[in-house]
Amino acid sequence: MKMQINKFKQTALACSVALGALMSSAVSAETLIKFHHDLPEDSAQHLAAERFRDAVAERSGGELRVQLFPNNTLGDDVEVTQQMQLGAVEAAIIPTAKLSGFVPAMQIVDLPFLFPTPEVAHRVLDGQAGDDLLATVEPVGLKGVTFWESGFKQFTCDHPIEGPQDFAGEKVRVMQSPIIMEQFKAMGANPVPIAFGETYNALQQRIVDCQENPLVSITQMKFYEVQSDVVISNHAYLGYAFLFSQRWFDALSPEHQALLT
User: Fold this and answer.
1) CATH 3.40.190.10 intervals, the chain
2) Of 105, 101, 53, 107, nearest in space to 77 by CA
3) Positions of the chain with pLDDT under 50
4) Distance separating alpha carbons of residues 204 and 44, to the nearest angstrom
5) In CATH, what class is 154-238?
C-alpha cells in the first residue's frame, strides 16, 4: 500500500509539472503589444484603439494581445517614439508634427491649409503619397502602417481673435515642429513648444495666451475651462502616424506581420 501511495504521488507530481509547463508555454506564446496614445479613455481615439485591440485578439486567436496605454501613461509622444526605437514599446499613434525631430519629411502634413476637406486628406494619406510618407520612418527604427487623425485644428485664446494680425505678440502653445513654429512667427506671434499633457496648466497659469488643436482635444482636455474664445479656422490638419517598433515587428512571424498591417 505504501509503495502504491508513493507511486501515486510521483504520478501526480509529474502531471503537475507537465501542466505547469503547458501553462508556461501558453503564456510565453502570447505576444504582448503595448499601445500608446495621448488622449483620455473617453475619447474617440481610445474607442478606436479598443476596436483595434479586439480585432487583433480575435483574428490572432489570442496569440497577440494589445494592452492600451491612453493619456500619455508611458510618457509623451516624443519619449514613446524613442522607446519604440529601442523596442520597449511596440505600437503607438504619434502626431506627424511630433515626428519632425525624427523624420523632417513627416511634417509636410502640418502645412497650413494643405487639405481643403477631410475627404481630400483621406484620399492623399490613404493613397500612394501616404505610403511613401510612412516609408520615411523606417531608417529611424519605426514601421509606419497607416494614418489616424484628430481632424482639423482650431484656435483658442483667452481673448477674442478677429484675424491673423491679432496673434502679433501673443504667446502660443505649439507642438515641437519647425513648420508649425514658423507659421506663428509669420503672424508675429511667439510660439512656445509645450508637451500636450502640460498644455492645460500652461494656459491656466497664463504661461501662454493661445493654443491650437482639433475640437476633440479641446473638449477632452477641457481647454474651454481656461480659454474664453475659440476660432473655427480649420487652418491645419492633425494627422497621426500609426507606428510599430521596427525591431519588434521584424521579429514577428510573417503571418502576424500581415495580420497587424
Assistant:
1) 154-238
2) 101
3) 3, 12-14, 17, 19, 21-28
4) 25
5) alpha beta
Distance, in Å, from the CA atom of 70 to the CA atom of 92, rounded to the nearest integer, reads 10
Burial class (CB in 10 A: 0-12, 13-18, 19+), 33: buried
What does DSSP assign to residue 1? -
pTM equals 0.85
CA 239 – CA 144 distance, rounded (Å):
13
Alpha carbon distance 173, 166 (integer Å): 15
Cβ-proximal residues to 147 (8 Å cutoff; 6+ apart), any chain: 125, 126, 130, 134, 239, 240, 241, 242
Q: Which amino acid is at 80?
A: V
Residue identified by cell 477631410 is 118
Choose among 220, 223, 225, 238: nearest CA to 40.
220
- The CATH code of domain 30-105+116-146+240-260 reads 3.40.190.170
- Cell readout for 102 is 525624427
Note the pLDDT tens digit of each residue in 171-194.
999 998 999 999 999 999 999 999
pLDDT of residue 21: 46
Q: Where in the chain is CATH 3.40.190.170?
A: 30-105+116-146+240-260
Cα–Cα distance measured from residue 242 to residue 147, given in angstroms and rounded to the nearest whole number: 6
Per DSSP, the chain holds a count of helices (H) and strands (E) of 10, 9
Q: What is the pLDDT of residues 230-239, one digit of tens each?
A: 999 999 999 9
